[in-house]
Predict the 3D structure of the following.
Amino acid sequence: MPPILELDGITKRFPGVLANDHICLTLESGEIHALLGENGAGKTTLMNILYGLYHPDGGRILVRGKEVKIDTPNEAIRLGIGMVHQHFMLVPPFTVTENVMLGVETIKNGLFLDRESVAARIREISQQYGIQIEPGAYVKDLSVGAQQRVEIVKILYRQADILILDEPTAVLTPQEVEDLFQVIRELVARGVSVIFISHKLKEVMSIADRITVLRDGRVVGTTRPAETSPAALAQMMVGREVILTVDKKPAQPGDVVLDVNDLQVFDDRQQVKVEGVSLQVRAGEILGIAGVQGNGQTEFVEALTGLRAVAGGTVRILGRETTRASPRRILETGVAHVPEDRQRDGLVLTYSVADNLALNTYYLPPFASGIQLHERAIFASAGELVKQFDIRTPSIQTLVSSLSGGNQQKVIVAREFARPIKLLIASQPTRGLDVGSIEYIHQRLVEKRDQGCAILLVSPELDEIMSLSDRIAVMYRGKIMDTLPAEQATLEKLGLLMAGVQPEG
Amino acid sequence: MAAITQTLGAGVGALAQRRRGILYALAGIAIIVFFSRDVTPEQLATLGLNTTRSVQLLKLPDIVVPVLPVVWLFGALVFGMGLWELARGFRRPAWLLGVTSFAFLATFLVWAARGTSFSLIGILSASLQLATPILLGALSGVLCERSAVINIAIEGMMLGAAFTSVFVANVTGSVMLGLVAALLTGALLAAWHAVMSIEFKMNQIISGTVINIFATGLTNFLNQRIMQEYTQFNNEMTFPFISQMFPELGRLPILGALLFDQSPIVWLALILLVVVQVALFHTRWGLRTRAVGEHPRAADTLGINVFRVRYVNVILGGMLAGLAGAYFTLGSVGRFDKLMTSGRGFIALAAMIFGNWTPIGAFASSLIFGFADALQVKLQILIGQVNIPSEFLVMLPYIVTMIALAGMVGRVNMPAADGEPYEKQ
């Protein structure tokens, strides 16, 4: 029997980048094939080619042994290929039924949507594969995990037997990941073949039958979980040896630096997003805030840094009240902020590296006197920082938008760390970075802690929280569920808290 | 999330409820104080239910009411509802607003008609007439914006269509061909808007504004050069009213004046309202349109051609705006006059927003705007009674528009992708 899917020498060029370089990949019928690689390794590009969203510049695609040309998603769907995108392709104000039927609507009386028969078919699929789903529910009311199930049902409804999952676990709690894995195993048992895209080593080791590692648009190798280890996979991904664990000494907590009391914050739509949060961070410790994205972490950090109005409660930094202070005043009390979305909130993309490095101190001597900027001082300091923080840039005049994600993050870290800081608020500091950069950022954070800086680390990545934090607070629906010392925090405990469940005992 | 919002909502809600209660109680007192002025105790007001336009089958008695008791009754009703809200609270505060608005209007009309008579049926009939172009314009907006293309050019499309409809009707001698010309004009301007905003991803507000300016300038110029100089091209050309085609219908009491002393375009608009409402929520076209307006990328990944959906909707929307333009001429006055749409295209947009991007909601708000407009016209007759300068009366529809829009800020469900050009990956 020929493999159900075969990619042979797929090449895709974008202006200035070779995103896929002669990639060969085979998917056997009924297997879970993991595609592992860093962000930017070309995984998503490859899958978009397979789904007809991009057109390859070279190479062949064979489905069930026959060469095919996939120009549109319609063609992919016709060939039985279905894809769960990293960002869900669901219409929030539609019901589950409407989302499932969209594009392949069933019509009754020659004109009207036949929602009932589609809903019945969804219930059938739901029973057959053990996927919990309510056809009449509105997608916007569903949890992320449930939305993902809708995506899977959408594909099964179209009778696809090749399922592509693009970073499916990025937004799930550990328990939801387990549920998803169970669904995937059930699908495979019923003859579906799965391509599982991820950059998380442990997950890939636990779910995949075979693993293909991509780096810089090329296949580095294909292996099986039994024949490899996380460290070996990491080395394949990065191309050099990486240390996966963070080396740190026990914390030496000092005075309270950040003192938050009963904080309340609304989001842009005037919905309560942070409800009565109280916490303290001491000098020389890292407090990690775990939680699934969207549980109020963003609004919490924005309120602390003065970017969002506080609706109730107080924030004190180094004993001074900053509840209603401007961002600049907060920054001047010795606070550094590494924002969650570096391109939106951390950098001015159309400015040079040097200008971005001076963004928070440009109005102070030696960079300015009165209304005049001293470019020479700005450049000199930028040159220093580029060297000190190992920012890989052609020059300090280069636009920051042309740097890689990791180097952009280093620009922010350099800018924020260059000042004498007492409190660091780091929101997802390693989001979308390669393993090498993550290692670098983590070391810098621990270094700052050991110098006596208080650090508030917000991240949805449990591995990151667990390896860096001295204490861990779990945020769920705007509240702190519990705060645990790092040594007591197990994956299971945190997972339950992240889902809003208080573990017994 | 819902649970948190509810618990906190209860606290915020209680405060808002108290504030609302006081406000409505004060409104009740204001009604009494304001509308007791210049009224003698035994003064009566007559609200007419008959029309002089056609011979009615059955003449209904007019509503004759004593002014002061009506003022006191409605004032006390609103005051009492305010107190109830303060003390116990209504489950749906929207009802409070509805009843209060009705009480205010009823009292106002009775007060304005004190010692004289006022045709109630006339104002209602005029409301429907004046609501028609707003409804058609709003439906045009719904079609475009549900597929995420903002159409601010409804005004210009109406104006252009109003011109061509009269011109073509006069040249060919056929009202029907005039109507066809109006639809084509709307479609053509819409196609232009579509190419600009879908194909070239131009800012849709700019593209729409360009069309508005173009239509204003060109119709002004052509009006001066053709309509003014060769008046044979601007003869009165209208569709016969339903009551002229079926005289028996026109003789029905109330309904005759309200529904049948109307241009067929009014009926067409009502039918289109039902068609668009049903189509949008119960057909394949509607589902795909809404998907494209909410999440075009999702629609694209499911094999729906986002660009085609938008082209079709914008051009259909343009035809509806063209129909609205034809109503100004072929449906009512029969002649073209410069700038005759006078901002009704923008009021239509407001009606669409106020109606939360649904046809049925747009219809309800068109009626409100139409009523405000009709009220303004009719009050000019009672000018001595109300003591409001006519300049202020003319502002009424626009003021209602502003109040309505200000009240809707933050409460509407705009299509999520509205105004964003779609880029293929």
